[in-house]
Amino acid sequence: MPHTTSKSQVPVPVQMAQNGQTSRQPPGKDVSPSIIRVLVKTPNAQEEFVVSDDTTVSQFKEAISTQFKCNVDQLVLVFVGRILKDQDTLYQRGILDGYTVHLVIKSKNGPPPQPSGPHGPLLMDLGPREGIGKVVGNGGRQPIIPIRNTVPTPIPASEPEKAKAQSQIPQPRTAERMAQMLESPVIQQLLSNTELMRQLIMDHPEVQQLMKQNPEVGHILDNSEILRHTLDLARNPAMMQEMIQRPDMPRPPEGFWGNETNPGGDNALGRNYAELPDSLFGGIQDPLRENLFTEFMHGASSLGGTSHTQSQEKQDSKPMPRVLHNPPPGHPLSGPTPVAAAMDQCPSCHFQDDPQLLEDLSSGTRFTGSMLQLLVQNPHLAAQMMLFMGSPQLYEQMRQQLPTILQQMQLSDLLLALANPKASQALLQIEQGLQMLSTEAPALLPWLTPYLWGLGRSGFPEATAAGAQSKEASGPQGRGKTDTRYQPLAILQRLQALAGGYSQQMQPPEVRFRPQMERLRAMGFRNHNANLQALIATEGDTSAAVRRLKRSQAS
Amino acid sequence: MEPTNLYPVKLYVYDLSKGLARRLSPIMLGEHTSIVVHKDEFFFGSGGISSCPPGGTLLGPPDTVVEVGSTEVTEEIFLEYLSSLGESLFRGEAYNLFEHNCNTFSNEVAQFLTGKKIPSYITDLPSEVLSTPFGQALRPLLDSIQIQPPGGNTFGRPNGQS
């Protein structure tokens, strides 16, 4: 407490001008009461007060209450973390000129607002909200208010259901929050759209199917409140995220909805989402997520297919999501693919549609093997590629993936993107520009590192080694540009070459190796299949294939 | 003086660049902070002010815990205070990665609770970044980044919560 600071402005010997008030002052106060400016800060506003420093706190509060138009009882003054008591003086508490005192204006809960004028900012906020609740209640939202009161009661009932104690947030808070959400003006707007949304939902053929199978769904859809809340959920990524993180949590809505079904299958989807590596969400929320959600809404079927296999035990209370699973029973895509769907957006479309790619990937030819190895060892590298293709946020998410998933997903995208000459051209230009910068202005380097792909530097020796295994001719070209500080360029080009090679590989071996096959046949190797196998094994190297064939013939 | 209860106030610091190569992270604001008091953790994200049990966000336990001090402010008063903060200064949409982020919030709350600010190396980080031409260039991009550590419970308006 800064009691010891001296008031240099009035160095006067002992002078107790107003002794009566300051009877509690420590003996030896050597300055007369002086006027100080005190800043009173509320969360919403701040006001400056000019008072004498031996003003008592209670007097101060009176001045404040006049200024802020509230009751003295509502005021709580906090200074340096201490609550100021009425009988102290400002000086005693160490409040000097220019200091800031924090003010909290307590709201009045329960009892009606006092007739004496409007209350502090807090209550003014509370008022309109209650007003909304009541006004809208008249407009047919009456059920909301009683539900709000009943929300706390179902909560304890749903508590035992929670298997995870992942978050011990008091349940009423969640429910209250939801109730508050409903009261927000946003909901009012949604009201007008509910009809529209309901129409939209009903028009969806799957929904219609659902409704046939599960009449409760229809009941839900007809219930405007539930619809409203569902829409709000869908629109609010933050909330969705919360629900996702606590997949067992969203039980409060049960009590809220009054029945066991949970509309929108949001939670089913949310749970699917939670199945994904948690790091996917590394705390980052971005506009992209909106897209992911819309994708979910449309891709509900595919995700439903997977969630069916997981968390079965939760399904009892969710007839709707369970029904969702039925439409796509024989969905060909397996587990990792919804992961892909969730994380990638358009890039993954083609990947999803082409499981063949996956096969090609895992067909361990030496070429792809080395490529995979490259990526496995340098997932950051692959992720960095994505940086330019996607967005930083997406990239962030990517790089936290398991390397395998990463490589599976990224590989094709990577290569396909690289195969686009214009894209790799642009990348090259960026690299060149950065390289120039690195030589001209090394000071900028720390800030440029995200774009330097510098992380791969340590792994680059092995990357170069791995890349060197490829038989592409542009390898040496890349090497020519390599300098000790700037290997990414080489890697880029090498990868580009690999991309070219890979896309080449996508053609069936027969096509690719036709000239070699001809040659083999001319040499006298008649066995077409054996030739092909040999060529595949040797990556189209005719002489090696010949050796191989000879060996196999001899054995 | 009558005995008053003192509640410890802690600052949880999460180093977001831990495990990620710092130079790769487009999130140059490398630290997320939150205030822990009254056995609850409070932080500000793009969803507004949120709370959770200490260490209860997806980020897990904090990397550093800074003892800010102690406060007499009771939980009730604190929640009131947070509610009005959430209405005014710290609404979700007010979130800005550089200028009005979790650290801004932690600083504000720390001052309210204890009169002390949080360590300057945390609060200075955004302005440090912004002062570089690179930071300025990236600014529109980074402005759109919103951080909301999952696992928190968004702080609502006062509704008889306390």
TrEMBL record, chain A:
Q: Which Pfam families match?
A: ubiquitin, UBQLN1
Q: Show the segment(s) annotated as Disordered.
A: 1-32, 137-169, 299-340, 464-483
Ranges for the Ubiquitin-like domain?
A: 36-110
| SMART domains, per the entry | STI1 (SM00727), UBQ (SM00213)
Supply one GO CC term from the record: cytosol
Q: Which PROSITE patterns match?
A: UBA, UBIQUITIN_2
**What GO annotations for molecular function exist for this entry?**
polyubiquitin modification-dependent protein binding
Question: What biological process terms from GO does the record include?
Answer: ubiquitin-dependent protein catabolic process
- Tell me the domain of life: Eukaryota
The UBA domain covers which part of the protein?
Answer: 507-552
Positions with biased composition (Polar residues): 16-25
Listed name of the protein: Ubiquilin
Taxonomy, top ranks, is: Eukaryota, Metazoa, Chordata, Craniata, Vertebrata
Automatic annotation (TrEMBL), chain B:
What is the protein name given in its UniProt record? palmitoyl-protein hydrolase
Entries under Pfam families matching the protein: Peptidase_C97
What's this protein's family per the entry? Answer: Belongs to the DeSI family.
Q: What class of enzyme is it?
A: hydrolase
Check the record and name the InterPro entries matching this protein.
PPPDE_dom, PPPDE_sf
Give me the reactions it catalyses: S-hexadecanoyl-L-cysteinyl-[protein] + H2O = L-cysteinyl-[protein] + hexadecanoate + H(+)
Q: Which organism is it from?
A: Monodelphis domestica
| EC numbers | 3.1.2.22
Instruction: Identify the keywords attached in UniProt to this record, alphabetized.
Output: Hydrolase, Protease
Q: Which GO terms describe its biological process?
A: proteolysis
Which gene holds the coding sequence for this protein? Answer: DESI1
| PANTHER family named among the record's database cross-references | DESUMOYLATING ISOPEPTIDASE, DESUMOYLATING ISOPEPTIDASE 1
| Superkingdom of source | Eukaryota
Query: What GO annotations for molecular function exist for this entry?
Result: palmitoyl-(protein) hydrolase activity; peptidase activity
**Limits of the PPPDE domain:** 7-143
